[in-house]
Write a structure and sequence with these properties.
By secondary structure, the protein is an alpha/beta fold. The chain has helices at residues 15-23, 37-46, 63-69, 98-106, 128-139, 208-211, 215-218, 257-271, 278-286, 295-301, 316-324, 329-340, and strands at 4-9, 27-34, 53-55, 73-76, 115-121, 143-149, 162-168, 180-181, 226-227, 251-252, 291-292. An 8-stranded mixed β-sheet has the order 3-2-1-4-5-7-6-8, sandwiched between helices. A 3-stranded mixed β-sheet has the order 9-10-11. It is elongated, with a radius of gyration of 22 Å.
Length: 341
């Protein structure tokens, strides 16, 4: 059985490492690199201060260093900000693309690398950076396939569309190239009733007040995505969760759907009646008992193992940022299996 020596770049809190562990393939991570010191602190906390973890810029990574590691698998999630819908979409002109530019120049020279998985945001597939990456794969004589997938396709109740590229040498894939796959090859759609519900990931006892949506945010409740325990969906959690109201992740109400719908009808009545006050509206909204998902619950949605943890001095704000920048462990794990089959 082949043993894999994994080079984990832009390693963050170790999502790719957990994904590799998920596959149960034989091998080890020989180097993990990220410039974010807070992310590296979390990584070190979970992997007991590994010597292979380096705080460094990927831009300065050299051909000599990579070949010395004798790594045969590269797992990476380069910065997504140059390609996000909310960003300026400066693509290769964004200085945060320089690390991927450097890797593209290295790939044809790194003879030991035989397998590559790269993750990025949806939208990367239309970028100049993607074209540059594909050209580097061609020059290095890799076979590759591209995907846009979301965890809901893997029975995870969370929508998080991401771009993935699998590449390997020596052996082509046994499914067609020339398109971006929007499902796993040979995978039939799964009925939604087979998906876990939100209740399965909730923490049983938490300090509700710590995660309660504050009154000033409740006023904007109509732009928020709200789920209850019986539902099997949630929206993508980003690094801006709890800091921004709209489009950064779902919030949770312990009320059943009928009860929450009833309260929203009352809110609409108040909004349409000029004689009703904002205080009345707020009083109704408070009855929703709306709260944010905890960092542990977000980690569960992203399929991190239960033993994944944060150091005690990491704030909730930092936790959300780190998780928002990470990957879905199950999706990437299944893709690594496909890459190595």
């Amino acid at each position: 059985m082949k043993e894999f020596r994994v080079l984990e770049l832009f390693s963050g809190v170790g999502g790719m490492h957990y994904a590799f562990n998920y596959t149960k393939l034989q091998g080890e991570v020989v180097a993990a690199m990220d410039v974010n010191t807070v992310a590296n602190k979390v990584y070190a906390h979970n992997y007991k201060n590994p010597k292979y973890l380096k705080t460094r810029n990927i831009q300065s990574l050299s051909e000599k260093e990579v070949n010395k590691l004798n790594a045969n698998m590269l797992l990476m999630s380069p910065p997504c900000q140059p390609h996000t819908r909310q960003g300026l979409q400066r693509d290769t002109e964004d200085k945060r693309s320089s690390a991927l530019n450097q890797l593209c120049s290295l790939l044809p020279k790194c003879e030991t690398i035989k397998y590559i998985l790269m993750e990025n945001v949806k939208g990367f597939e239309c970028s100049q950076a993607r074209q540059q990456f594909i050209e580097a794969l061609q020059q290095a004589k890799f076979y590759w396939r591209e995907f846009i997938l979301t965890p809901t396709q893997f029975q995870v109740p969370n929508t998080r569309y991401r771009y993935y590229c699998l590449a390997r040498k020596d052996k082509d894939f046994d499914f067609p190239s020339g398109k971006i796959w929007e499902q796993m090859p040979g995978q039939a759609p799964h009925p939604t009733n087979e998906m876990d519900t939100i209740s399965s990931l909730l923490e049983p006892s938490i300090s509700t007040s710590e995660f309660l949506v504050p009154d000033d945010v409740l006023k904007r409740v109509l732009v928020m995505d709200i789920v209850n325990s019986d539902q099997n969906r949630s929206m993508c959690f980003t690094k801006g969760y709890t800091h921004y109201t709209e489009g950064t992740g779902s919030t949770f109400t312990p009320l059943v759907r009928d009860e929450s719908d009833r309260l929203f009808e009352i809110v609409k009545e108040i909004d349409n009646d000029p004689n009703r006050t904002n205080w009345e509206r707020l009083d109704v909204l408070r009855q929703l008992k709306l709260r944010y998902f905890t960092p542990r619950e977000v980690a569960r949605l992203m399929k991190f193992p239960e033993y994944f943890d944060f150091p005690p001095d990491i704030t909730n704000r930092q936790k959300y940022r780190l998780l928002g920048n990470s990957i879905n462990v199950k999706v990437v794990g299944e893709l690594i299996k496909l890459l190595t089959t």
